[in-house]
Amino acid sequence: MIWYTLITRLLLPFALIRLWWRSRHHPDYAPRWPERLGYRSAVEGAPVWVHAVSVGETRAAAPLIRALLEDHPEIPLLVTTTTLTGAAQVAMLFGNSVVHRFAPFDLPRAVARFLDATRPRVAVILETEIWPHLFMALRDRDIPLFLANVRLSERSYLRYRRVEGSIAKILDIPAVIAAQSPADATRVRALGAPPKRVHVTGNMKFELSPTAGLREAAQALRLAFGDRIVWVAASTHQGEEEIVLSAYAILSQGLPNLLLVLVPRHPERFESVGRLVRARGMAAVERSSGRPVTMDTQVLLGDTMGELMLFFAAADCAFIGGSLVATGGHNPIEALALGVPVVFGPHMFNFAEIARLTLAAGAGIQVVDEDGLIAALRTYLGDAPSRDTASKAGESLVRAHQGALRRTLSLLEPLLSRQTRPLADL
Predict the structure, then answer these.
(1) Full DSSP string of 59-114
(2) pLDDT band, residue 426 (cuts 50/70/90)
(3) Is 57 an active-site residue?
(4) How far is CA 297 from CA 226, 258, 267, 300, 323, in A?
(5) Which of 273, 347, 397, 399 has the fewest beta carbons closer than 10 A?
(6) Do 262 and 122 reside in the same domain of the chain?
(7) Which domain holds residue 145?
(8) Are residues 55 and 193 both part of a single domain?
(9) What is the pLDDT of residue 407?
């Protein structure tokens, strides 16, 4: 713990430089960066605090947040993120119905300032966010800690094993731990979490129910596209766009009405990806420009925030990015819930269980390189029966794995009261 504290303090100047840089490039962030140090975080009314790092975690937390807003309108909700994109996602999904703050750095004084200002009745931390100073501060203040939707990949487990003693002390802090799968629960217990506090609740990312409004908007978008076959390349990373564009050039020879919707993962790469598309000589339209997609348009660049579900709903097939490069992949459940077959690369270690279930259900295809990507896309884009079979399999898979929200709420409900049982009894 002493070494951890020393390292975090040594890294603080670099973190502050990064905050300054972000403030210069994102004017809306400039007045808010002190929140990362615990300042300007005041919230009234002993809120339930839900922490979701970025976009993916915010989407996973959305069903839980909606349920809390509906079931406990008398309790304020504080949602924190650490990224700008996560903050934008919170604003888009919940507007003024929740209070958003940026989470503090895991430094003793920053954490203390944040907790003094917010005084949450319970802290709900999404997925595998282990912050020693925060967890100990919550324990010292007798604030219940609930770790929700926890996943611990084999790779992360082996990394934590290197500091197993320290992790065991942190996980022994009184907390309720809701793991996504039995394998996640086993790995968490092996790191030192008390078995009685670890529960298997399932993955809340399966708790998706596409709305009629989304489907209507997607239908309108398809009409605007014209008679096109639509392929979405979602959440792509550097090194993947080149592969995707090369695959498109080959596929479009046999599918001349193919439209590629290319959505880079990080907003700061929108411009560079746009330049890459045009350097290939492809006719492109930026979604943010408002210009129509014509029959001559080859690539629609998804350079807006919060529209990926819409693009999925309007697609015939989706490639899940971060999987052809060693990033760990991204979540395919949103596409599957909308009946969209998925293709992903070999690097899905962040979503290994979901990838396994997808393949077993026949709802997607895993590939290792560009040739495999082209072959898989031909299967789905050029063969309507194969596409329809995979589409139905994906929707069935998502329905079969729902229920995590109900199980999570049943564990969380006793902690919402200020007169809850002592932390030691969790």
Answers:
(1) HHHHHHHHHHHHH-TTS-EEEEESSHHHHHHHHHHHGGGSEEEEPPPS-HHHHHHH
(2) low
(3) yes
(4) 11, 9, 22, 7, 27
(5) 399
(6) no
(7) 2-207+403-425
(8) yes
(9) 97
Q: What is the pLDDT of residue 56?
A: 84
Is residue 58 within 8 Å of residue 90, measured between CB atoms?
Answer: yes
Cut 0.90: pTM above it: no
Cβ within 8 Å of residue 51, ≥6 positions away: 79, 80, 81, 103, 123, 124, 125, 126, 129
**Helix, strand or coil for residue 296?**
coil
Vertex 46 angle, CA 42 and 52, to 5°: 75
Pull the structure tokens for residue 350.
């962040």
Residue 263 neighbours by CB under 8 Å, 6+ apart: 232, 233, 234, 235, 236, 301, 302, 308, 311, 321
Catalytic residue among 35, 44, 57, 129: 57
Residue 343 shares a structural domain with residue 229: yes
Task: Confirm if 201 and 404 have CB atoms less than 8 A apart.
Answer: yes
DSSP helix/strand/coil, 178: strand
Claim to verify: residue 175 and residue 237 sit in the same structural domain: no
pLDDT at 324 over 90: yes
CATH of the domain at 284: 3.40.50.2000
Kindly state the average pLDDT of the residues 89-108: 94
Tell me: do 165 and 298 sit in the same domain.
Answer: no
C-alpha of 342 from chain center = 17
**135 shares its domain with 45:** yes
Half-sphere CA count of 410, side-chain side, radius 13 A: 9
State how far the Cα of 418 lies from the Cα of 144, in Å rounded to an integer.
10
CATH number, domain with residue 121: 3.40.50.11720
Residues 244, 165 share a domain:
no
CA 248 → CA 209, 251, 298, distances in Å?
31, 5, 9
Q: Across 138-197, where does the E strand assignment appear? A: 145-150, 176-179
pLDDT, tens only, 35-82 = 999 998 889 899 999 999 888 899 889 999 999 999 999 999 999 999
> In terms of Cα–Cα distance, which of 229, 310, 242, 232 is closest to 275?
242
> DSSP assignment, residue 283?
-
What's the domain count of the chain?
2
Task: Identify the three-state secondary structure at position 241.
Answer: helix
- As a whole number of angstroms, the distance between CA 297 and CA 225 comes to 9
- Rounded-to-integer distance, Cα 318 and Cα 340, Å: 7
**Is the same domain home to 296 and 276?**
yes
